[in-house]
């Protein structure tokens, strides 16, 4: 099985419920098991679109699914939870992104791993550091604990 880290976020409706529903659905995926979940962090949105604050976190999985199979499954979860992709970086009921997939480096039209902006996003790095500080970014070849910086705008929620 491969260790995978997904970031998750929600800023519409009952954010906690949306996240809990997504995490529960992740645990029902074939050949996949949730192994760790970070705390929830409240963060301002990025991208310049005015919207509510996000709840964000990171979940660790063990899976035998391929990266594209996992992507298809998490996109199905987003659809089930009423994710609508109208505005780039706009509000969303749930957002699930593959951040790291073992030590894989992949750059396809549908999927880039590691996530190309993860090293710039405190709302990904801080919760990832909480559950996987020793994980290695396979492109930067650095531990997450060596990449993460404190950010007062990423506030622990729960």
Question: Could you walk me through the main structural features you see in this protein, from its secondary elements to its overall organization?
Answer:
Strands 1, 2, 3, 4, 5 and 10 form a six-stranded antiparallel β-sheet that branches. Strand 8 (136-137) and strand 9 (142-143) form a beta hairpin. 26% of the residues lie in helices and 28% in strands. The chain has a single domain (2-156), classed as 7,8-Dihydro-6-hydroxymethylpterin-pyrophosphokinase HPPK (Alpha-Beta Plaits), CATH 3.30.70. It is built from four helices and ten strands; from the N terminus they run βαβββαβββαββαβ. It is an alpha+beta fold.
CATH superfamily annotation? 7,8-Dihydro-6-hydroxymethylpterin-pyrophosphokinase HPPK
Strand content: 25-35%
What structural category do the secondary elements indicate? alpha+beta
Compute the number of strand runs: 10
* Percentage of residues in helical conformation: 25-40%
Essential attributes:
single chain; 158 residues; alpha+beta; Alpha-Beta Plaits; 6-stranded antiparallel sheet; 4 helices; 10 strands; EC 2.7.6.3; Hppk; 2-amino-4-hydroxy-6-hydroxymethyldihydropteridine diphosphokinase activity
């Amino acid at each position: 099985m491969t260790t995978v880290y997904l970031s998750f976020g929600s800023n519409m409706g009952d954010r906690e419920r949306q996240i809990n529903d997504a995490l529960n659905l992740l645990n029902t995926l074939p050949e996949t098991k949730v192994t760790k979940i970070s705390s929830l962090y409240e963060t301002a949105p990025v991208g310049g679109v005015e919207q509510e604050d996000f709840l964000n976190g990171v979940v660790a999985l063990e899976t035998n699914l391929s990266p594209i199979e996992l992507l298809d499954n998490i996109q199905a979860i987003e659809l089930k939870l009423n994710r609508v992709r109208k505005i780039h970086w706009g509000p969303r009921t749930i957002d699930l992104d593959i951040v790291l997939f073992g030590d894989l480096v992949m750059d396809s039209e549908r999927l880039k791993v590691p996530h190309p902006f993860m090293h710039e996003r405190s709302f990904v790095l801080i919760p990832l550091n909480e559950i996987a500080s020793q994980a290695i970014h396979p492109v930067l070849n650095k531990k997450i604990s060596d990449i993460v910086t404190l950010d007062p705008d990423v506030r622990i929620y729960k």
